[in-house]
Amino acid sequence: MNILWDIDPAARERYQMALGADAQQLTSVALVGRALQDNHDISQVVIGPDVDLAQACTLAESVRVDRPSLGVILLRHRLDVTAMAQALRSGIREVVAADDQTALADAVRRSRDLSAKLAGHVTSGQANEGKVITVFSAKGGVGKTTLSTNLATHLASSGLRTLLIDLDLAFGDVAISLQLLPTSSVHDAVVMSGHLDEQGLKSLVTHHGASGLDVVAAPPDPSDADRIPVNVVTELIRVARGYYDYIIVDTPPSFTEGVLAACDVSNLLVLIATLDIPAVKNLRIALDTLDMLGNPRDSRVIVLNRADAKVGLRAEDVVSAIKQPIAVSIPNSTNVPASINRGVAIVLDEPKHPVSVAIRELGDVQIRQRFNGHIDQPETRRGRALFGGSRR
Ligand SMILES: Nc1ncnc2c1ncn2[C@@H]1O[C@H](COP(=O)(O)OP(=O)(O)OP(=O)(O)O)[C@@H](O)[C@H]1O
Ligand SMILES: [Mg+2]
């Protein structure tokens, strides 16, 4: 059931199409609070455009912990970025223009689906499955870990439940790149093989407080890499899909069994090219291998990293060699290794840096828009981790 909190008596009729005929209108925060206490069937609260932003945020803040499955959607006469960021930080799921009925209907539907999932009532399963995005390159050192950690951090800090799995099982450095101190790793999934459940998954993740990202780290001992059967990897991804919106997979620079399994279940492969002949050659081979394995071409995007490096090879040369367009170009910058050495994601630390802008473009246009048909929220540090607890 949906609640509309609006002081305008005509509001219920105006938004009826989006909210459903059984939506109930309430005119004050006190009435909304009481209704939420009395009626546990309320799954969405839509807050009208004239309600004070601070009051709306206070309500969202209070329910996000006590009742995380409750969706709060905010209507505004004008979508201004500061107000949107404040709203999303407080836990409001979406901010929609008051005169856009279609956008409101879409937001309500998405929020309802998410509420059902959070409340554990998903019945169809498939429709709400998390999207798996594998970041791969057959050549080492091209920026897979940089890209996967920053991409995952961006998605998580946008309020999406995001898990980053480090499948570079022998030499994974996701944890160190984010200054995490994991107490568990993919290797701990081995003993749970065949019966990995929510609790098991929870025990495997390390939480990144700054973004809300959850991470399954690579084993600390490289020799454990060989003791992780491929079915453990597929089970981990399959189970994680039920709990996260996005699962980003970082990989080693070769088609290991685990990488092939991840590619197999991925909704999107992000393949990295750089401006050097061996990297382009290896990308060409990787693309041919993926073709041979029946991987659909439209589920791949090419990212050119260090795209402006002056090394004699141009982006056009890469495109003509691989015969595929470049979706996103990430510039070369010493701020990238500097951010890794500080253990912070550049997208969070320097959001205006051209590298961060490019990575956000990948996340928002190539990923969120691809899978949702739109970008539902601006970037914000909302922190909706599954297993990390409260807002940071
Ligand atoms: N856009 C960039 N500008 C400058 N340096 C970059 C950029 N992207 C990555 N680097 C640097 O390149 C190095 C390799 O990056 P990264 O570890 O992400 O690559 P990788 O593909 O994961 O490597 P491996 O195959 O060893 O796992 C790092 O020192 C990183 O800081
Ligand atoms: Mg790496």
Which stretches of 5+ consecutive residues score pLDDT under 50? 122-127, 378-384, 388-392
Strand percentage? 15-25%
**Class computed from helices, strands and strand pairing:** alpha/beta
The domain count comes to: 2
Can you give the mean pLDDT?
89
Radius of gyration: 22 Å
What's the arrangement of strands in the largest beta sheet?
8-9-7-10-6-11-12-13
Biggest beta sheet summary: 8 strands, mixed
Q: Which ligands appear in the coordinates?
A: adenosine-5'-triphosphate, magnesium ion
How many helices? The count is: 16
Strand tally: 13
Task: List the secondary-structure elements in sequence, H or E.
Answer: EHHEHEHEHEHEHEHHEEHEHEHEHEHHH
Cα separation of the termini:
30 Å
Oligomer category? single chain
Name the overall outline: globular
CATH class of the largest domain: Alpha Beta
Give a quick rundown of the structure:
By secondary structure, the chain is of the alpha/beta class. The chain is 41% helix and 15% strand.
